[in-house]
Amino acid sequence: MIISLFSCGISYICVLLAVAFFTFLERKGLSYMQLRKGPNKVGFIGVPQPIADAAKLLTKEIVKPIFSNYFLYLGAPVFSFSLALLLWQLYPSCFSVVYFKWGVLFFLCVSSLNVYGTLLAGWSSNSKYALIGSLRAVAQTISYEVSMVLIFLFPLFVVGSFSFFDIKDSQCVVWFIFLMCPISFLWFVSCVAETNRAPFDFAEGESELVSGFNVEYGAVGFALIFLAEYANILVMSLFSVVLFLGGPFLMVLCSDFVMMVKVMILAFLFIWVRASYPRFRYDFLMNLTWKLFLPIALVLLLFLLVMMFNLFL
Hints:
Number of helices: 13
GO molecular function: NADH dehydrogenase (ubiquinone) activity; NADH dehydrogenase activity
GO biological process, one term: aerobic respiration
Family: Belongs to the complex I subunit 1 family.
Order of helices and strands: HHHHHHHHHHHHH
Strand content: under 5%
Helix content: over 70%
Membrane topology: Multi-pass membrane protein
Catalytic activity: a ubiquinone + NADH + 5 H(+)(in) = a ubiquinol + NAD(+) + 4 H(+)(out)
């Protein structure tokens, strides 16, 4: 028990550091894509900038809206941040202390609770802009979760296991991204929409909603929402690597290092997409999942089941 708690604490500290410097990578990446410098005044080429931002947010005064539901208003960011950290317990590393045999089911249960944090943050603020932003985010997240779960079934049916360790190890010969190229593309787009990232960031439409569901938050509350969002980006990149870009345990240290390189490349694609595409129209977003992703996923899943049935016969 002591070893497990110590391992969890070290993992969470590493996640917080990774999130902090991933925000720095995003700001520098977007700036160079837009032909500017980005943060470069604090320390060497702006590297301590995330630490300065964290110090600023954590030392600011907490301002409470007068008509807000105070306990839910404070609890929603903590709830979202806790769920984001909880998913990192599924990290399939050689050094993992806890082995999740039903890790996929745990991932689906925890990730589906994220909408409640967004909904509580928007509703408890007692602001019409925050409420509209949270409703848009909840509708978007639930819609893309349907297609995302169907896409999740493809590697599960091929491997025949609910463990992320088994899914990763089963790709010793060939990665699933080569066997399921269209499905892996649908998965990545669904992950972008699931994390409310551009071009699907409808919860944060600056022109009409200012900052969406978190418009009333500042100081620690905003910092926790911010950390939860970027931790979800990294964890979705991690599971994308496990599902479609996994590999064998060639060497203990080498395997984890290569996996982290894949995660960072995939996480950088989130930044690249944000810099490349404008925001979709909301009806296009909903049509994309219900009229395109869902039928394609169902048809391809039926095709896979027929092939597996013929193979076993």
